[in-house]
Amino acid sequence: MSITMIAAMGRNRTIGKDNKLPWKLPEDMAYFKRMTTGQIVVMGRSTLESFGGALKNREANVVITRNRDYACDGCRVVYSAEEALDLYPDRDVMIIGGEQIYRLFLPHADKVLLTEIEAEFDGDAFFPELPPDQWELQEKTPGETNEKNPYAYAFCTYIRPR
Questions:
Q1: CA distances from 147 to 4, 39, 102, 107, 120 (A)
Q2: Where is 98: in which H helix or E strand?
Q3: How far apart are the first and last CA of the chain?
Q4: Ranges for the DHFR domain (predicted)?
């Protein structure tokens, strides 16, 4: 099993505000869709609700919640990180948020696909620090800044050396 986390964050590690992205960056949204299509995605309930429901064209949508009565069309509902991992023990999974879910899975992750945006944003959700003694930057590809994508940003791939 391989665990990849995917997120976009501002310079101050912000990933969200009021359960929404605090920026508009269509290139990052296209990257997210490209990287997660066909994959098993794992997320928290708030993240699922921010999408408006299960993501289409994913092999599986797994939602972690504390609410034992929670149900969602097109989703597998679980109550812990361990339960989510036990669903697909021999498969690769992608962790797509939010903050609490990233913190739960960081110790287990092998790779982080992180869009780093060169701006600070007001937020209430933050991506956890990647300890430099545990993670190395494998690749950094600058994104194109234009009128639709007004912030400088880069698609970064971090790996945990084994």
A1: 30, 31, 31, 38, 18
A2: none
A3: 14
A4: 2-160
